[in-house]
Amino acid sequence: QVVFALNQTLLQQESLRAGSFQIPYTTEDLIKHYNCGDLSSIIFNHDTSQVPNFINATLPAHERITAQEIDSYFRQELIYKRNERMGRRVKDLLEEYPDKSFFFAFGAGHFMGNNTLIDVLRKEGYEIEHTPAGQAI
C-alpha cells in the first residue's frame, strides 16, 4: 500500500507539472471561502480534499481496492481522529478552567468535510459561533 500510494502521488505530481492535471481551486479560492465562513462550499465539502486522492476510474480493479483502503485509512487517521483529539483538548481546557475565557484559532483543515472539529464539539453540547474576517471580537 505504501509503494502504491507513493507511485500514485508521484504520478499526480508529474501530471501537475506537465499541465495535464489541474487542481480545481486555487489557494486564493480557499482563503476567500474560509474568510467568508463559506465552509459548505464545494471546496470545503470533501473529506479528502486535504489528502491525496488515489481513487480513479482508470485503475485496474485490484488497484482500485488498494486505493479505497488507503483513502479510508487517510480519512480515518488524518482527518477524523485528528479532529477528535483536537476536540478533546478543547473540551478538557474548557472544563478544567470554567471561569476563563478562551479564543481558539484552527487551520481550515479542521473544518473540511464530515466529522469536523465543529461537529465533535457540538456533539459534546457546545455552541460554536463563526467570527467572520474583519469582525471585532
Automatic annotation (TrEMBL):
Required cofactor names: Co(2+); Mn(2+)
Keyword Iron assigned: no
Membrane topology note: Single-pass type I membrane protein
CC cofactor note: Divalent metal cations. Mn(2+) or Co(2+).
Signal peptide: none
EC number, UniProt record: 3.4.-.-
Compartments where located: Cell membrane; Membrane
Keywords: Cell membrane, Glycoprotein, Hydrolase, Membrane, Metal-binding, Metalloprotease, Protease, Signal, Transmembrane, Transmembrane helix, Wnt signaling pathway
Any one annotated GO CC term: plasma membrane
Biological process according to GO: negative regulation of Wnt signaling pathway; proteolysis; Wnt signaling pathway
Molecular function terms from GO: metal ion binding; metalloendopeptidase activity
Family: Belongs to the TIKI family.
Job of this protein: Metalloprotease that acts as a negative regulator of the Wnt signaling pathway by mediating the cleavage of the N-terminal residues of a subset of Wnt proteins. Following cleavage, Wnt proteins become oxidized and form large disulfide-bond oligomers, leading to their inactivation.
UniProt name for this protein: Metalloprotease TIKI
Record organism: Balearica regulorum gibbericeps (East African grey crowned-crane)
Classification lineage: Eukaryota, Metazoa, Chordata, Craniata, Vertebrata
